[in-house]
Each structure stands twice: as C-alpha cells, then as structure tokens.
Amino acid sequence: MNLTIEALNPNNAQTYVDYLDHLDFHHAPDWAGCFCRFYHTTCTNQEWEKRTGNQNKADALQAISNGSMKGYLAFHEGQCVGWINANAVQSYPRLTDFVKPYINAPQTGCIVCFVIHPAYRRQGIASALLSAAVDDFKQNGFDAILAYPFENKDEPEKAYRGSSTMYTNLGFEVLEARNGMAVMRKELKQ
Prior knowledge:
Number of domains: 1
Number of helices: 6
CATH topology: Aminopeptidase
Helix content: 25-40%
Strand content: 15-25%
Strand order of the largest sheet: 1-2-3-4-5-7-6
Radius of gyration: 16 Å
Order of helices and strands: EHHHEEHEHEHEE
Shape: globular
CATH superfamily: Gcn5-related N-acetyltransferase (GNAT)
CATH architecture: 3-Layer(aba) Sandwich
Number of strands: 7
C-alpha cells in the first residue's frame, strides 16, 4: 500500500478533526468525542465525562495550533486513513504517575494512541505510523520512547495502543508485563 505520512500541524489540523469526527466508533461510543485529548488533560475522570466532543475538538485544534499536540497522519490516495498520538512524555499529564518509574532520560517520547480507519486495519498502517514517529523522535534528539500496548483478543478494535509485536519489530523491549499490558521502551541513544 502506498502511504504518505504527515506530521500533525496547523495545515492539516482540520483534516485530523474531520477524520476523527466521521469515524464509526460503535465499538466504543465514548471514544467518539475524545479527539485524542484524554491523556493530555488534567481534569478528573468525572470532569472528563462531562466534556463534549465539541470541547475536545476545539481543545485539539488549539493544541495543534500552539504546537503542544503532536502526532502523525497516514494518507492513502489523498484520504486520511490513520493517526498516531506521539509526543514528549510530559505532554500526557494523566500518565505522569504511571510513567515516572520507567523514565530513564529527560528527553523521552511516548506513544499513546492509534486510530486506524476500519477499512484499512491489518494493512501495516499502524506500523508505518510508529516507524515515522520513531524516526522523528531520533531526529529531534530524544533519548528513548515509551509505549504501553495491551492485548485485547476479544475486541481487537479496542487495542488502541497498538500491538506488542509491532513495537518489538522496531526494537522496543518489554520492561514489565501485567494483566495483558506491556510497558515497553526503545533506547534511541546508546
């Protein structure tokens, strides 16, 4: 498959929100209004549940505009078919306590979310997005990358953090595994 990968930026921000706005999230209806903002917020879970999709969309557009939300979009024949949320680990306040023990360098990246169009799943798009993110983390001087894939064999469409195999294929190592989730890290500087 011929893919084009683009870093998220103000020029493709509307494409990003349109892509997420028009996907069918019947398998996880509460994801429909997230716009990949959950891990970026500091509100309580109760406050999060009260937020609307329009609030999250506006928040995403603002964060893209000011450069605080990063990631990559995959395009096939001009159509957006995938997204990866990839940024410095400090950009995800909801993960702060969880990730602290695994951070071994100040410049640590993190992968938190993939959204692949249902018609394009299992075609290597998530792996291509991950590869692009790893390459850019390297080029931008990051020391390491963390990821937290979990296996969901009953509902694979809910495995929004990618598969362990995908990460292993790019040199990530398992630091810890529990309850179907792996904590993985890739060292970028040896």
